[in-house]
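User: Let's play a game. I give you a shape written as tokens, and you guess the letters that built it. Ready? Here's round one.
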């Protein structure tokens, strides 16, 4: 279906930018991120054909940044929210800076919860009034399915987001809104560079293909309204099942062995 207006966080590059490009031209866009230059360049690219594109430069580690995004989204009357912004940091918790650990908590958990709760009443009211459906896509990760030493806080934050989204979908199952947890695996974005990964996977990751951001976005839009959880790629899907069925100690040790190779 075509939404009237979409909010995309973390839209300056990667999966967020891919969602912006994948949505139909009839959907007005509200793009947020910290990189003003990249946001403006994307807005200019997408607005060439008269499409309505607005940007809000906001730091989601800061409550004021989150409030600014919610206010702009209310003004834009968004009926699709894509909580895509996320950050990670490779390393032992004790070795990572306290600031970076807290940034992961704020961006990966606090931001989607605050934005979702802040916008839900308006989205539901407009959907009821217009006889339409609204949508929420929360970008989790295949990391959500297992504890991951050396990525402990990042993986745990994605587990939170996955469980939160599934519970929210059930709470809203009788409402005119679709809720999806999208779980990509390794994706061709700037994530690894920003997370301090010195030897990022390329091409293949444990036999699984690195997916493009475009594929992730397209699968997410197709899955919204059809599934509550969508894992991108059949190999990642099988791995997510294995991580839930195998002994926890074994999965945790295997994850640490894999991540040690990224250092």
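Assistant: Ready! My guess for every position:
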């Amino acid at each position: 279906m075509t939404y009237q207006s979409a909010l995309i966080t973390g839209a300056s590059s990667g999966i967020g930018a891919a969602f912006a490009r994948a949505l139909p031209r009839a959907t007005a866009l509200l793009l947020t991120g910290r990189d003003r230059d990249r946001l403006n360049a994307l807005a200019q690219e997408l607005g060439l054909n008269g499409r309505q594109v607005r940007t809000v430069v906001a730091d989601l580690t800061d409550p004021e940044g989150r409030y600014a995004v919610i206010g702009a989204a209310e003004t834009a009357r968004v009926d699709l929210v894509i909580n895509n912004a996320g950050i990670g940091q490779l390393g032992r918790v004790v070795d990572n800076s306290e600031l970076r650990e807290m940034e992961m908590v704020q961006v990966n958990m606090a931001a989607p919860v605050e934005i979702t709760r802040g916008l839900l009443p308006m989205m539901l009211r407009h959907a009821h009034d217009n006889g339409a459906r609204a949508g929420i896509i929360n970008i989790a990760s295949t990391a959500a399915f297992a504890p991951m030493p050396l990525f402990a806080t990042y993986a745990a934050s994605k587990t939170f987001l996955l469980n939160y989204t599934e519970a929210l979908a059930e709470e809203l199952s009788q409402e005119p809104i679709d809720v999806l947890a999208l779980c990509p695996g390794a994706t061709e974005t700037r994530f690894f560079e920003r997370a301090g990964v010195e030897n990022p996977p390329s091409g293949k990751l444990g036999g699984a293909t690195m997916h493009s951001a475009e594929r992730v976005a397209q699968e997410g839009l197709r899955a919204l309204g059809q599934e509550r959880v969508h894992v991108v790629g059949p190999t990642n899907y099988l791995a997510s099942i294995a991580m839930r069925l195998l002994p926890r100690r074994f999965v945790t040790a295997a994850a640490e062995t894999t991540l040690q190779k990224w250092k």
